[in-house]
Amino acid sequence: MTSQTEHASPANSMVESHEGDFGCSVMDLRKLMELRSTDAVNQINVHYGGVLNLCRRLKTNPVEGLSGNPEDLGKRKQMFGMNLIPPKKPKTFLELVWEALQDVTLIILEIAAIISLVLSFYRPPGEDNEREYLE
């Protein structure tokens, strides 16, 4: 059985060989972001030797964050890309209407409107006789 340090060291040397100035690639960071809870902590501990070692590899301070040096920020943008989430395509008006029509309250109101419309055209059979008496 291999220990964690023996298991982590070959992966670490391979990671350092193709990430340039930083100790991990964009794909490695994306994989970490997809993990949750203890899985993420275990992954960081096994592959990077803990949070402090990961911060050291990324050349950042765990308390203060990035230094703000424009040259450093330029390298990070080149290595990792821009730090933004691409905007979603806005929904069309018809898509919004369709979603609104799926609401339970609106469905009940639509059914009530249809029943009301049908009843407004309905004439009971004895209603004509009542008009004659009223005139």
Topology of helices and strands:
Elements: H1 4-17, H2 26-34, H3 37-48, H4 51-57, H5 70-80, H6 93-101, H7 104-121, H8 127-134
Helix pairs in contact: 3-4
Notable characteristics:
mainly alpha, 135 residues
Describe this protein's structure.
The radius of gyration is 33 Å and the shape is elongated. The chain has helices at 4-17, 26-34, 37-48, 51-57, 70-80, 93-101, 104-121, 127-134. Among the domains are: 26-80, no CATH class; 87-122, no CATH class. α3 (37-48) crosses α4. The chain is mainly α and 135 residues long.
How would you sum up this structure in a few lines?
By secondary structure, this protein is mainly alpha-helical.
Number of H/I helices: 8
Mean pLDDT: 76
Proportion of strand residues: under 5%
Q: Rounded to an integer, what's the Rg over CA atoms?
A: 33 Å
How many β strands by DSSP? 0
The structural class is mainly alpha
Order of helices and strands: HHHHHHHH
Describe the sheet with the most strands: none
Q: Give the low-pLDDT segments.
A: 1-18
Keywords: Magnesium
Organism: Phyllostomus discolor (pale spear-nosed bat)
GO cellular component, one term: plasma membrane
Pfam family, one: Cation_ATPase_N
